[in-house]
Amino acid sequence: MKIHVKKGDLAESATEAAVVAHFEGEPGLDGAAARLDKMSGGFIGDVIGQGDFTGRLYQILVIYSRGSVPAKRMVAVGLGKRSDLTLERLRGAFSKAAQHIRSLNIGEFATSLDLGSVALSIDRIAEAVVEGVRLGLYRFTPFKTAEREQIREIANFTILDTENGALKIIKAAVKTAGIIADAVSFARDIVSAPANEMTPADLANEARQIARREKIKCRVLDEREMRGLGMNALLGVAGGSNEPPQMIVLEYRGGEKAGPVIALVGKGLTFDSGGISIKPSEKMDLMKDDMAGGAAVIAAVQAASQLALPVNLVGLIPAAENLPSGKAYKPGDILKSFSGQTIEIVTTDAEGRLILADALTYACRYKPAAIIDLATLTGACVVALGDNVIGMMGTDEKLKGEIREAADLTGERVWELPLWEEYHELIKGEAADYRNSGGKAGGAITAAAFLSKFTGGYPWVHLDIAGPAWLMKEKPYIPKGASGVGVRLLVQFLRNWNRDRKGA
Fold first, then answer.
1. Is 224 a catalytic residue?
2. Hey, what CATH class is 195-500 in?
3. Catalytic hit among 91, 102, 188, 353
């Protein structure tokens, strides 16, 4: 879909559908909606007056104009109460409007961002609207062959404004939102891909292709190099598979040459059977999503490069499959990690923290100003927080605060869990330094406690995305399936990085 920003009045635009917004509980229309209604002879206002359209959140109204305005259809979308307006509601509302228009087999539509008196800036509104439309229209269809000609798509979306100053701001915001939406869609694509089409080598190739297109350096450590370094935790997990592991290293240098480095680490289990401690067969097919953290990191580095963010980044994605075989690691085994610390294997289904341990240790080579890891790490986090919230734990209050702020802006919500010393006691080993599982109690927290042992004392935050990475029920601009969670959160955090450190 192409997005156009043009000078003009929506009420005078010849479009298949003119989309406007209305706030719940208000008898009159405001902004662009008021102008469109006046020119049409009050069609929208009449429906509101009869109570058929109240403006409740995500409510959709379609009116055929019959020549009263140049637009063939007038589409009104409810934003809920004006006092409750947020960027997240804007994303959802315009997503719902775009989805409804697509269901009518309409190929293009237009809107105005003039919502009347609201507390949000025009650039924020533009970003939210474009993100909502782009991400709401996303579908994963590359493997669909039957009735493919019936897949409907919207080709063009136009944003109109009458002021030159606003147009300049909107164009910049649309460009930014498009880059971010592309990154999220990329992450959704590779998480949705079946494990036979997205092996560790395939994931590494995706990273290489991005690096070739962008100002990014990509290096992939193979099994021989990892063995030479002593990455035995990662190699142990990968031992049961015929697919060789890959340690993907992406570097983007957008900041000062000697400036601080931010390390992003993403779990890249392209398929997780549980290994010898095999998972139940029910829903095992969804374990292709166990590389969602790695996908988010690759996508965030891509977006940072395309946005030319003034930061220095390293993205680290340990990629492997966890399968049972005669060569697989076993409960009771002891692995010596890249850090030199030893790990006693309690269960082979606690493999994500093992591959992350070696990747986190590798991140310490960069003496990072911050380490953030993302992982579909524990079912315990889903039990604690459900499917809509990211579990956050870490060692640095400032870093956690910055992630909270980014979460509020993007709608990718986080909730902090404690990382107290009592939890660390649960992962102490008997025959080795640590155990790779502290048991069911506080499972998300003990997993984070384990990871903390490999962060070298650098500022670190762990984000457990096990709940929101794959949704069983769609949300307004997130489809059922892969959500691409973490991409927008990371990008917003990176956009704020230098601002948050001025004068520090």
1. no
2. alpha beta
3. 353
